[in-house]
Design brief:
This protein is an alpha+beta fold. The protein has one domain: Carbon-nitrogen hydrolase (Nitrilase/N-carbamoyl-D-aminoacid amidohydrolase, 4-Layer Sandwich). The chain has helices at residues 20-36, 57-60, 68-80, 156-163, 190-203, and strands at 5-12, 41-43, 83-92, 95-103, 109-114, 134-137, 140-144, 168-173, 176-177, 206-211, 213-215, 225-227, 231-233, 239-242, 251-258, 266-270. Strand 13 and strand 14 form a beta hairpin. Helix 1 (20-36) runs parallel beside helix 3. The longest helix is centred in the first third of the chain and has 17 residues, at 20-36. The radius of gyration is 17 Å and the shape is globular. The chain starts with a strand and ends with a strand.
Length: 271
């Protein structure tokens, strides 16, 4: 679709705490599937390699872009000639960050974000981020935020990215609920509708949040489960695509981001 838009694949996949190689292999497989379906950009969850707040961050976090995880994803982007956005657990000297990257079809690092709005429970694992940027590409202008960045200070980070010129904000996430959460009685997702909707509407941009699925086995939220429910919000401020809910609800969600129409046509396939 060139400058008028692009095909987005939202990869709602399982992430197992501390299992870097298994998680990366799963991500590589799903990226390949999305490429076969014609996706031009693949968006993956937060802390894809080690799992959100998993204790392995202290010893297994890697530098960006020279760490194994970033290099493998960059090679995957080159192999399939597509853009890849993913959450990574980053080591920078003595500091560990909950980070995310946008990689180009040539494997080039286009954006490197460090989560700014680290909530209290994760501050024992990660430092507060120190950067905000937008990248201009043939598909449009992109910004990155990570999960709770989306509700920082009345959407201040998403508003800032929009003011910096982002057409699309990509957000790797890890949305977790208590083990006994009843999705029929209390449907998940209102927090993200409330925080993605206003900036998307006010600035006429797209916001895509992709969560992983699976149980949190260790760390401060051990016993909770990540439940997908990934969400794409359009320029009218309304959700136009919502992923399935559940700790086993892996899915690849496809959307045509059309800047001319300000809406998308939707195609969802659960695996």
């Amino acid at each position: 679709m060139g400058r008028d838009g692009f095909t987005l694949a939202m990869l709602q996949i399982r992430v197992d705490g501390g299992c870097k190689h298994e998680n990366l292999a799963r991500a590589e497989q799903r990226i390949a599937e999305a490429a076969e379906r014609g996706a031009e950009l693949a968006l993956l969850p937060e802390a894809l390699t080690l799992g959100w707040t998993h204790p392995s961050a202290a010893t297994e976090a890697e530098p960006i872009p020279t760490g194994e995880s970033c290099e493998r994803l960059a090679e995957c982007a080159r192999r399939h000639q597509m853009f890849v956005c993913a959450g990574l657990v980053e080591r920078a000297g003595a500091k560990v960050f909950d980070s995310a990257v946008l990689l180009g079809p040539d494997g080039e690092l286009l954006l490197h974000h460090r989560k700014v709005n680290t909530i209290e429970i994760e501050q024992q694992c990660y430092r507060v981020g120190d950067r905000l940027a937008v990248a201009t590409t043939p598909l449009g202008r992109f910004g990155i935020m990570v999960c709770a960045d989306g509700f920082a200070g009345g959407q201040v980070l998403s508003q800032s990215l929009a003011l910096m010129g982002a057409d699309v904000i990509l957000s790797p996430c890890a949305w977790a609920v208590p083990a006994d959460h009843d999705n029929v009685r209390e449907p998940y997702g209102q927090l993200w509708r409330d925080n993605y909707g206003p900036p998307a509407h006010d600035f006429q941009i797209w916001i895509a949040g992709v969560s992983n699925v699976g149980w949190l086995r260790e760390g401060p939220w051990a016993g909770r489960k990540c439940i997908g429910s990934s969400m794409l919000v359009g320029p009218d401020g309304q959700p136009v695509l919502i992923g399935p809910y559940g700790d086993e609800a892996e899915a690849i969600l496809y959307a045509e981001i059309d800047y001319r129409r300000g809406r998308n046509s939707r195609d969802e396939r659960s695996m």
